[in-house]
Amino acid sequence: MMASASRRNGGVFYALRSLLPRIRAAGVELRVFAPVDPSTESDRAEWGAVAVETVPPWPPAAFGYSPQLLPRVVAFKPSLIHSHGLWTYASAVALRASGGILPLIVSPQGMLDPWALRLSRPKKRLVGFLFQNRHLSKAAVMHALTTAEARDFRCYGLRNPIAVIPNPVEPVEARPFHRPTGEGRRMLYLGRIHPKKGLDLLIDAWARLRARSEATEGWRLEIAGWDDGGHRVALEDHVRRLGIGDQVTFLGPVFGAQKGALLAACDAFVLTSHSEGLPVAVLEAWAHRKPVLISRPCNLPEAKEFGAGVVVDPNPAGIEAGLMQMLTLAPEAMDAMGGAGLRLANTRFSSDRIAGDYLRVYQAVLERKPLPEDLRYDG
Predict the structure, then answer these.
(1) Which of 68, 205, 269, 283 would bridge 320 by S-S if both were Cys, CB 3.0 to 4.6 A apart?
(2) Which residues contact 316 (CB under 8 A, 6 or more apart)?
(3) pLDDT digits 0-9 by tens, 92-105
(4) 256 and 119, same structural domain?
(5) 325-335 in b/e burial notation, b at 16+ Cβ within 10 A?
(6) What is the pTM of this model?
(7) Do residues 137 and 214 share a domain?
(8) Which of 365, 370, 372 is nearest to 79 (CA)?
(9) Structure confidence by residue, pLDDT tens digits, 228-250
(10) Counted domains in the chain
């Protein structure tokens, strides 16, 4: 169950379209259920041989209500239901279809993070009362992307068993990028344009650093992604007020080959979010051998631990210090940092490895056995 089976679901879509074909290849009969959205048909081929059933939602489309959804799920006669995301009608369908009999696995995908919970709090309290809290409490297993997210589950009051499995990333042919002489260097943000991504903080930090040092000379900050709720207009106005429009460019939404080309051509990647589960965009940057500048809420301490990036607090001072460190690195040091990220992408976050972990959890749940010890959160 998903709120969307297209790129509109961000990292959830990219993670599952990588994992589910591998799980299906292991002999599991799968079906994805989701409401229709404007990108459903254009992205349907991304699922390969995985069957995807979509139904038209009633307004408001963001909630995803459709009277057709529950009968479709029940007609499939699943042995197990895996629900991805919260706060939409998909959670209610998963709860009702399980009926307290079928095992239910719930992946909140970062949506129980305290910062995320503060967004639209009255609506979430209402949805929680109506069905979301029961959907969570009835889960045979809660799936966390990180141990930090597992702690968020406990803070929310959940006492279900928890399996910790990160998001995956597809391998790419990644080589060191050497920019032609005379071209500037690029730091890339790639994701939806939304307040939780901390782009206002990043722009403030860039302006502060530019005013205080020469570190930004020869660099451009490129911001790519689709506008969620009109936030881009406010950011563009902010860039103009700060007088840094010559160094900050908004590229609009990019997908597919264009996204890959941007990642291949940038010199560094940045994500300074207030709240994340485990951002696939950072993993994609690592798969393209790029060093990363990320905030602590990205929940990827591996960046610092393995020398694959710079980790900062999500505030202008912290981000400014991180920018100073990243923008003044020698190309050889940046390439070494990117190489460390590539090794992480190809080992710890490989799609093949993570698909195997999903299968082990599914088997344990269906056989009513304890979760594998290496995946179980004991907090």
Answers:
(1) 205
(2) 201, 204, 205, 208
(3) 999 999 998 999 99
(4) no
(5) ebbebeeeebb
(6) 0.92
(7) no
(8) 365
(9) 889 999 999 999 999 999 999 99
(10) 2
Tokens describing residue 184: 């500037």
The answer to the question of residue 178 being in a domain is: no
Which segments of the chain are extended strands (E)? 31-35, 51-55, 81-84, 104-107, 141-144, 162-164, 185-190, 219-224, 248-252, 268-271, 292-295, 309-312, 376-377
User: String of b and e for 206-240 (b: at least 16 CB within 10 Å)?
Assistant: bbbbbeeeebbeebbbbbbbbebeebbeebbebbe
Query: One-letter amino acid identity for 191?
Result: G
Closest CA to 283 of 353, 343, 225: 343
pLDDT digits (tens, 9 = 90+) for 133-159: 999 999 999 999 999 999 999 999 999
pLDDT over threshold 70, residue 180: no
Whether 1 is covered by a domain: the verdict is: no
Tell me the residue length of the chain.
379
Q: What is the CATH number of the domain that holds 311?
A: 3.40.50.2000
Domain check: are 43 and 154 in the same one?
Answer: yes
* Radius of gyration for the alpha carbons in the chain, expressed in angstroms and rounded: 21
- Which two tokens mark 276? 């994340």
10 Å CB burial of residue 53 (0-12, 13-18, 19+) is middle
Our measurement of the distance from residue 173's CA atom to the centroid of its chain's CA atoms, rounded to an integer in Å, reads 22
> Which residue, chain included where needed, has tokens 């309290």?
125
Cα angle, residue 262 at apex, residues 116 and 234 outer, rounded to 5°: 45
- On whether both 90 and 221 belong to a single domain, the answer is no
DSSP 256: H
Say yes or no: 199 and 335 in one domain.
yes
195 and 332 in one domain?
yes
266 in the same domain as 198 = yes
Domain of 137, in residue numbers: 7-168+350-377
